[in-house]
């Protein structure tokens, strides 16, 4: 069709395996270290937190991991997701570029997060785990895991960053509708939370603190495990279903990407989209520029350092080699709560160090302007997180307008913004501000890094 | 597949025409009357409010109306929508019944309303109309028309029932994100609004009042027209794409419906699902029971009277022969704002009088209990309106459990509840109440009916 806007896969064409990029890289990423011994952590160190299957996936040398049938059964509720050509946006921009977006907002939770929440709930249930703990920032991850736990009969407790808990009561209601218990973080329920509150009674929280609380509670309860929504290898791997589908759909469209952009917080959406295309690039079958887009308020790739750091504030997790702003860094309360994490996926950090991807940072007002333009042309209101990707798409498409290049741009619209309308209200009423993050503030946060390994 | 849960159509299988049931009925519905002359209204009477194409569709004797290509182009953003088998809910209920739901929440606006908002915006734009007015109760319709007007370059002004305007600021933000202007109703902007406020300064509004305001403003502005989200024949006809798709999808599943249930406010969702199946029933090709489910707080079918009444409070519209509670009826502020309309589609009212469909009424607490059960088994949080349909599905499925009958139950899940979480919060915290609607209150409202024709 000349004006085709949507590329769909049959249910029978849905990928049956996740892709693990590690064996295809020129070198493996540095391993996580035990904070005491500074030795690589083994499966036993992780057993109090994760079921064996997920630990195996975290360190797997296999290129492909089959997706279990009960996971496919739930994926089928909304997968395969559509790939859409942004023809109305292209026209509005007057660009010769062709813009495609993979839309993950069709999931019941409204984002890409169920792609990993469902297998994580499944593997825990299969291992006999009856309780899970997790943290959530903006609420997308907590919502997705609440959804998944409802379907697999697991009791879930969520620590939700205090500022989001107060500002987004409906996010909390949504998790409770699925049956989860939600605490604000820092909370009085954990040692980690009480320690923060003792020093900062008015703390608005951070993902790092919330992780400390969720990890502490899981480790203390033999029937419970912990679940993380980004950062780790197995999480990024579950998200590769996005890129695997997009690869086939772009093929349907008869196009190959020149530029791939994705927003990055912990890295799972970006990694899920990019890794299958990076495999093709490493194999010489295509040669796209692959660009991460992070918020200027939390620029781990573009202004952080590459070092071993804790994944949480209290220092309960293994040390991870990653681009980090320091585990004590508290980002500005920007609306893209899902991108407010001090560190970046160790796998993506390694790939960045290998020079295989690039990164840019964007202030939120530019991102919301892009989100509004997208809503009024394409009809879908993006979540605050993917407005970063949309802004980068528009920037690239306008460059093409100047140069006349007919580039093919691909991105993932990882969620809709229907639960983030307070942010759009701020933007529409002119109340949105971009705060400058000073070099001094970053330097101060980096002084909290553990001694170099 | 033995455990198939989702039935999808190809884009090429998407219906290319809407279905008009009128020529297939044993008798046509009584015509709308001019309130002054009491004579049937003609196209000229409606020209200040609607473009010619929609007036033609309203009175068309044709069985099928082709869907214009630019409308199909927008439909393709989310259509065809999936038909899902509620296997997890069936298992949870222990029923031998097979429950299917057509899920319309995948549209960018989150409901079935864009099915008619898009053609209405298209036909107006094609006729050179640059401004539209409308009303909205819960906000689903206002959101859908804002979305459609953004895509077709029309300025939209929405009168939003005051109680929703105050309780749901994010609905307003969503319409504004798409570029619409939103007034609370009653407003100081119109004669109709000022008249209500003069008598009731604290009025929380009603759909009838908001319609008066939108109609008044459209009639006064030659460049503007008015758009209605339910009740009228052309609106129901646009929604038949739901039933046409579901018919093909159930065929894919190898099933034929024994019971079809749908929630009814003005009737567009129910009519859109039911009419294509009613055609099959009238032709003797299947024999389903077709059941409308309305809120006990606004029971036009089950406790209203069948009479000519105004569509709005101020009496600006033609007289419509319909099941009505009287145009002065102000329903309880239940959470299903989309079902709080004093009248019922004249077409469906006529079909009900012909004995072709039946109706039941449900209190909201039963509906929210059903919605919660659905969310925790099927993973999708229903909007308050379709919780009525879900409650009726569960009732039927439990009857099957007792009788052992393997009935096939079909419903439309016409929208998700992500913008209605305050209602779930009320329910979860035990604050939801069911008020009894007395016979006296209904009798009092019916005294406001215009003199019998």
Description:
2 copies of one chain form a homodimer. The first copy, chain A, is α/β, with parallel strands linked by helices. The first copy, chain A, has a domain at 5-13 and 68-110 and 234-446: Rossmann fold, CATH 3.40.50.1100. The first copy, chain A, is 41% helix and 16% strand. Chain A contains 18 helices and 15 strands. The first copy, chain A, has helices at 43-46, 52-58, 69-75, 87-93, 114-126, 140-152, 162-167, 169-177, 191-199, 207-219, 233-253, 268-282, 300-303, 346-353, 364-378, 384-403, 421-428, 439-446, and strands at 6-7, 17-19, 64-66, 83-85, 98-103, 131-136, 155-161, 181-185, 224-226, 259-263, 289-295, 305-310, 319-324, 358-362, 408-413. A 7-stranded mixed sheet of chain A has the order 1-4-5-15-10-11-14, with helices on both faces. Chain A has a 4-stranded parallel sheet with strand order 8-7-6-9, with helices on both faces. Chain A has a two-stranded antiparallel ribbon with strand order 2-3. In chain A, helix 4 (87-93) crosses helix 15 and helix 11 packs across helix 12 (268-282). The longest helix of chain A has 21 residues, at 233-253. The mean pLDDT of chain A is 95. The interface between A and B is large, with 42 and 42 residues.
């Amino acid at each position: 069709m000349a004006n085709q806007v949507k590329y769909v896969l049959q249910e029978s064409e849905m990928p049956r395996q996740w892709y693990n990029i590690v064996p295809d890289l020129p070198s493996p990423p540095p391993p996580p270290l035990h904070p005491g011994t500074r030795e690589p952590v083994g499966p036993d160190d992780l057993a109090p937190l994760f079921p064996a299957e997920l630990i195996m996936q975290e360190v797997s040398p296999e290129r492909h991991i089959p997706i279990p049938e009960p996971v496919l059964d739930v994926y089928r509720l909304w997968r395969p997701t559509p790939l859409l050509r942004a023809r109305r946006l292209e026209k509005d921009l007057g660009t010769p570029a062709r813009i495609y977006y993979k839309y993950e907002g069709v999931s019941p939770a409204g984002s890409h997060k169920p792609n990993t929440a469902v297998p994580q709930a499944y593997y825990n249930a299969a291992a006999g785990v009856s309780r899970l703990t997790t943290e959530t920032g903006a609420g997308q991850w907590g919502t997705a895991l609440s959804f998944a736990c409802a379907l697999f009969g697991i009791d879930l407790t969520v620590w939700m960053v205090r500022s989001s808990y107060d500002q987004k009561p409906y996010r909390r209601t949504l998790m409770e509708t699925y049956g989860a218990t939600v605490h604000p973080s820092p909370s009085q329920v954990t040692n980690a939370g009480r320690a923060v509150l003792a020093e900062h009674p008015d703390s608005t929280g951070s993902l790092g603190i919330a992780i400390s609380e969720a990890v502490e509670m899981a480790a203390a309860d033999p029937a419970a495990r912990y679940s993380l929504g980004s950062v780790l290898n197995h999480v990024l791997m579950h998200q590769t279903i996005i890129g695997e589908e997009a690869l086939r759909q772009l093929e349907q469209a008869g196009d190959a990407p020149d530029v791939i952009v994705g927003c990055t917080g912990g890295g799972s959406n970006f990694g899920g989209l990019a890794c299958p295309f990076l495999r093709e690039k490493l194999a010489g079958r295509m040669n796209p520029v692959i660009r991460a887009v992070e918020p200027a308020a939390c620029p781990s790739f573009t202004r952080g350092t590459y070092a071993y750091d804790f994944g949480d504030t209290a220092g309960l997790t293994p040390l991870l080699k990653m681009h980090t702003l320091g585990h004590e860094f508290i980002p500005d309360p920007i609306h893209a709560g899902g991108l407010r994490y001090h560190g970046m996926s160790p796998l993506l950090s390694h790939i960045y160090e290998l020079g295989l991807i690039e990164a840019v940072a964007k202030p939120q007002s530019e991102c919301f302007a892009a989100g509004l333009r997208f809503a009024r042309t394409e009809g879908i209101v993006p979540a605050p997180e993917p407005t970063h990707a949309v802004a980068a798409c528009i920037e690239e498409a306008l460059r093409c307008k100047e140069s006349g290049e007919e580039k093919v741009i691909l991105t993932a619209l990882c969620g809709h913004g229907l639960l983030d309308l307070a942010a759009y209200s701020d933007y529409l009423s002119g109340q949105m501000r971009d705060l400058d993050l000073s070099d001094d503030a970053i330097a101060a946060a980096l002084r909290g890094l553990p001694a170099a390994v």
